[in-house]
Design brief:
single chain; alpha/beta; UDP-N-acetylmuramoyl-L-alanine:D-glutamate ligase; Protein-Tyrosine Phosphatase, Chain A; 2 domains; eight-stranded mixed sheet; six-stranded mixed sheet; 17% strand; globular; Dihydrofolate synthase/folylpolyglutamate synthase; Mur_ligase_cen
Length: 438
């Protein structure tokens, strides 16, 4: 049997465009596979611009705290493709094994018989095969891009549809206006399936409300039907069923309060799952989600680190992501004051200046790096120029390793180092640190 990496390399060549939103190709393949999408465990379908992965992480932690078997499908991965597929197992889900992944990929490749199909579509079909073969109580299914024409949207009747905050991103594929993007994401709403809507701007919320009315999807909106807020160092969740007084989430940043709230609202809308307040509380305290306001506390990058220097990692990459990350770093500054040094790499499909504007008032300097794992990386010089336009002193470096070494060598204690700008870069950091997701 070929390795999964070798098979994935072949699958890339089946379609000339990495992203080509359509349901026709995956529907054809799923039919040839015997429709595994019709044999999945009950699905919670999650779309949005920011916060999808964190919301899924909260859902998984709370469901597993209740003893539920949970499958998870996410994208992209950080270090290894296996991170995209987590299978339910006693004591908590496990990433798909190399043997099972390679077998599933080889089988869908054989059945597809060389027909045009994108990598995401054919690997989603493989994931559905694996999820259908393994029993579980719930499948947490993350939309890859958009929603309406995303390969995951072949699920006819999920348990719930969740839409996290919507903002401008992937304009080439989804549109240049928030209303256009919201319309695409509203495509996951289904008749009689509850829709849990996280905090949105007015334009996006209006689009989602109209879509829910049109499809007959019962809608629960943050700030209207439920809310999650911090009070006196606690997370307070409130809806028509009452109030929960909970510990703050383990994940850093005030934006995680809203993501946790969306997860709680979803589980409260699904009483048949039987998730208790105690399991919600345990989930908040045990949740893990790499590369989202993650402090590196072990691994190669922190060995021998000067006392008082912190290294943080976040894969945020759009303007709204920059805003919430900067707010989280400001909150850390309020607790322990020290200079903030940025190491940033970004793709050329992203608005670098829009992302960096939020850091202008809090970052002392920026070190720009290439993203070695992507052909779409901006050059360090381009990132440094965007930083300069945003008002942040910047230096380009030839590699991530060079930038990290320079920052750690030159920084005086105390200092806070934030590596950000791309999930691809975050994956390189975790690989370099020797701490890939488990």
């Amino acid at each position: 049997m070929k390795s999964s990496d070798a098979i994935l390399a072949r699958l890339v060549a089946l379609h000339p465009r990495e992203i080509d939103l359509s349901l026709g190709r995956i529907e054809r393949l799923l039919a040839a596979l015997g429709h595994p999408e019709q044999s999945l465990p009950p699905v919670i379908h999650v779309a949005g611009t920011n916060g999808k992965g964190s919301t899924i992480a909260f859902l998984r932690a709370m469901l597993e705290a209740e003893g539920k078997g949970v499958h998870v499908y996410i994208s992209p991965h950080l270090v290894h493709f296996h991170e995209r597929i987590r299978l339910a197992a006693p004591g908590g889900g496990q990433l798909v094994s190399e043997t099972e992944l390679a077998e599933a990929l080889a089988y869908v490749e054989e059945v597809n018989a060389g027909a045009p199909i994108t990598l995401f579509e054919i690997t989603t079909a493989a994931a559905f095969l694996l999820f259908a073969r393994h029993p579980a109580d719930v499948l947490l299914l993350e939309v890859g891009l958009g929603g309406r024409l995303d390969a995951t949207n072949v699920v006819a009747k999920p348990l719930a549809s969740v839409i996290t905050p919507i903002s401008l991103d992937h304009a080439k594929f989804l549109g240049n206006r928030v209303t256009e993007i919201a319309w695409e994401k509203a495509g996951i709403l289904k008749k009689d399936v509850p829709a849990i809507i996280a905090v949105q701007g007015n334009e996006a919320r209006d689009v989602l409300e109209r879509a829910a009315a049109r499809t007959g999807s019962p809608i629960l909106i943050s700030g209207q039907d439920w809310q999650a807020r911090e009070e006196r160092g606690r997370l307070v969740f409130e809806d028509e069923s009452g109030l929960l007084d909970l510990p703050l989430p383990r994940l850093q940043g005030r934006h995680q309060h809203e993501n946790a709230g969306a997860a709680i609202a979803t589980l409260r809308a699904l009483p048949q799952l039987g998730v208790t307040a105690g399991s919600v509380e345990r989930g908040l305290q045990t949740v893990e989600w790499p590369a989202r306001m993650q402090r590196l506390t072990k691994g190669a990058l922190v060995e021998g680190l000067k006392e008082g220097i912190e290294i943080w990692l976040d894969g945020g990459h759009n303007a709204d992501g920059g805003r919430v990350i900067s707010e989280a770093m400001t909150a850390l500054e309020e607790r322990v004051s020290c200079p903030l040094i940025l190491i940033v790499g970004m793709l050329n499909t992203k608005d670098s200046e829009g992302f960096l504007n939020s850091f202008a008032s809090i970052a002392s300097e920026l070190h720009a790096v290439p993203i070695a794992s992507s052909d779409a990386s901006r050059t360090p010089e381009e990132v440094a120029q965007a930083a300069a336009r945003a008002g942040i002193p910047a230096l380009p470096h030839a590699s991530l390793q060079e930038a990290v070494a320079a920052v750690l060598r030159q920084s005086e204690s105390p200092a806070r180092v934030l590596i950000t700008g791309s999930l691809y870069l975050a994956g390189e950091v975790l690989a370099l640190n020797g701490t890939p997701p488990q």
